[in-house]
Specification:
Blueprint lengths: L1 H10 L19 H8 L19 H6 L3 H7 L1 H22 L9 H10 L10 H14 L4 H20 L2
Helix pairs in contact: 4-5, 5-6, 5-7, 5-8, 7-8
């Protein structure tokens, strides 16, 4: 859990975001596993030797799951990450246009940008994609074909939003 939280904090979480939290969601409740998994997480641990690097070594990067791996194993994770990235891009776009969003909610950001003709060309489908992303985030059950379509279109929209920041 700590490994994944650290990776999320390093690779996804922005400076303005609050610290990440971890949740263990199990099909069946097994108190013994949960107890051992979480007991004494404050125990001191050490590494005999380490070296700081700005990027992961290629040999280590090959061992870590990629975004595609997460998409296969955790489709909702990819959809949630994309939703957060789109919301962040919309916020920064609004700021770059001198708009001060009163509420950072994604629907409010879209409405504000539409009102001021601030959405870049090619992002018209952002609301359609967000409908699917929100369904995944809040309802959970989403068909695989809709999830793949949302990931494809959402990634295109995100690229266009990031180009205009």
């Amino acid at each position: 859990m700590n490994f994944y939280l650290s990776a999320i904090d390093d690779l996804i979480r922005g400076k303005e975001d609050r610290p990440s939290i971890g949740m263990i969601i199990c099909k069946d409740r097994n108190t013994v596993i949960v107890e051992y998994a979480l007991r004494d997480t404050s125990k001191p641990m050490g590494v005999a030797q380490y070296r700081l690097a700005k990027a992961l070594p290629k040999s280590l990067a090959k061992e870590l799951p990629t975004r595609d791996d997460f998409a296969k194993d955790f489709p909702r994770f990819s959809l949630l990450a994309l939703r957060l990235q789109i919301e962040k891009a919309l916020y920064f776009l609004a700021e770059s246009l001198g708009l001060a969003p009163a509420n950072r909610g994604i629907a409010n950001l879209i409405a504000l940008l539409q009102l001021h003709n601030g959405l870049p060309e090619g992002t018209e489908r952002v609301e359609q994609v967000l409908d699917i992303l929100n369904s995944a985030a809040y309802l959970g059950g989403i068909r695989q074909d809709r999830a793949q379509e949302a990931l494809r279109i959402g990634s295109e929209v995100l690229q266009k939003l990031n180009k205009h920041q």
